[in-house]
Design a protein that fits this description.
The protein has 13 helices and 15 strands. It is an alpha/beta fold. It has a 7-stranded mixed β-sheet with strand order 2-8-7-6-5-3-4, with helices on both faces. The chain has a 4-stranded antiparallel β-sheet with strand order 9-10-15-12. Strands 1-11 form a two-stranded parallel ribbon. The protein is globular, with a radius of gyration of 22 Å. It starts with a strand and ends in a 9-residue tail after the last helix.
Length: about 400
């Protein structure tokens, strides 16, 4: 809605109007099953394969390397579980302490099933040490799964270097690249990474469509069986409208890459600098040099993220927190906890994530609302006048 200043694009994005228009025929008239042999069905099949070609072109791979799933979480599960199933004698997995929950919680389930899981630590800026990764690999390591960039801080991991290390040991390497498509250049053909996964709704496409990119020579065991869809790797009648939207969204993400790395980054930097200038208790969490161009994670010392988000929402600003309510208590983000961020900062951490649909006028307005909201909360907490600068 136009009334919202939407700064929560790492959670999901506004669909591009062009994507919506491309999907509409497959929600109305083009409803045939793409597996049907009649001409009507084959027209729909052609649309699915066109989307596959668009996705492949965006990653510089062949269309047959693209597998569509029912979302990013399913894509991660297919990549990881599908790899493990082909190596039952290997019972070790290497990951990080800061993965998205779709991987993090899967790791806990694997441990319950008897796997050894090594979770690599990050430093105070959220960075990963390649030497620690190499040391963690073992003879029975079945897969290494390391995100491309962190969804909370935007910190980018050196997956090219990590992939080369894993390849030298003959260990399959998977990266959850959900947050990086359209924000960083990705040439999957040149990456030493066997499996890359994505989610359409992070790039102004529809929800409910995930993408697995398989490098040549990489094999998986299907996790959903039934029909022969998606090269026998993901059974079930395809979400045609969603896949059509996802293919176009991937094409557009590449076309708008320069805008993300320039105009969007400039808006992010201006907003971040403005908040730091106006709010003395604000601290940026994470490496400010090697991070996504659209993301900033700001901790407001001695405040609670839930209260900040509620007040911002009341004034039309949408953002997210690395915190979650569990059993009635606010727990700090596992990412910030792994970074060793002080609790008084981590509890008040807010993630602001921008997109190409944000405007300078929205940032101007946000720079009025955010310091005012923080000042009000400080005043309530300290029972004194807000401590903010008007400069």
């Amino acid at each position: 809605m136009s009334d919202w200043i939407y700064l929560d694009n790492n959670a999901t994005t506004q669909m591009d109007d062009r994507v919506v228009e491309a999907m509409l025929p497959f929600l109305r008239d083009q409803y045939a099953n793409p597996s049907s042999v009649h001409h009507f069905g084959q027209q729909v099949r052609h649309a699915v394969e066109t989307a596959r070609e668009q996705a492949a072109a965006a990653l510089n791979v062949r269309p047959r390397q693209i597998i569509f799933t029912g979302g990013g979480t399913e894509a991660n599960h297919l990549a990881i579980l599908g790899t493990l199933a082909l190596q039952p004698h290997r019972r070790h997995v290497v990951t990080t302490a800061v993965e998205h929950d779709s991987v993090r919680r899967l790791m806990k389930r694997l441990e319950d099933d008897g796997y050894r899981v090594t979770r690599l630590d990050v430093d105070s800026l959220g960075r990963l040490d390649p030497a620690a990764f190499e040391s963690a690999l073992a003879d029975d390591t079945a897969i290494a799964t390391i995100m491309h960039a962190n969804n909370e801080t935007g910190v980018i991991f050196p997956i090219e270097q990590l992939g080369e290390i894993a390849a030298a040991r003959g260990i399959p390497f998977h990266t959850d690249a959900t947050q990086t498509l359209g924000k960083l250049p990705i040439d999957a053909k040149q990456l030493p990474v066997g499996l890359l996964t994505f989610a359409s709704h992070k790039i102004h496409g529809p929800k409910g469509v995930g993408i697995v990119c398989l490098q040549r020579g990489t094999y998986l065991q299907p996790q959903i069986v039934g029909g022969h869809q998606e090269r026998d790797l993901r059974a079930g009648t395809e979400n045609v409208a969603g896949i059509v939207g996802a293919g176009l969204a991937m094409q557009l993400a590449v076309e708008h890459l320069h805008e993300e790395t320039t105009r969007v980054a400039a808006m992010r930097d201006r907003m971040e600098a403005g908040v730091l200038k106006r709010v003395p208790i604000a601290h940026v969490n994470g490496d400010r040099e090697h991070r996504l161009p659209n993301t900033t994670n700001i901790g407001f010392e001695a405040l609670e993220a839930e209260a900040i988000l509620m007040l911002l929402s009341q004034q039309g600003v949408c953002a997210s927190s690395g915190s979650a309510c569990s059993s009635g208590s606010l727990e700090p983000s596992h990412v910030l906890e792994a970074m060793g961020i002080e609790e008084r900062i981590a509890h008040g951490a807010i993630r602001f994530s921008l997109s190409r649909f944000n405007t300078d006028a929205e940032i101007d307005r946000a720079l009025e609302i955010i310091p005012s909201a923080i000042g009000k909360l400080q005043a309530l907490q300290l029972n004194e006048s807000p401590t903010i600068s008007t400069g």
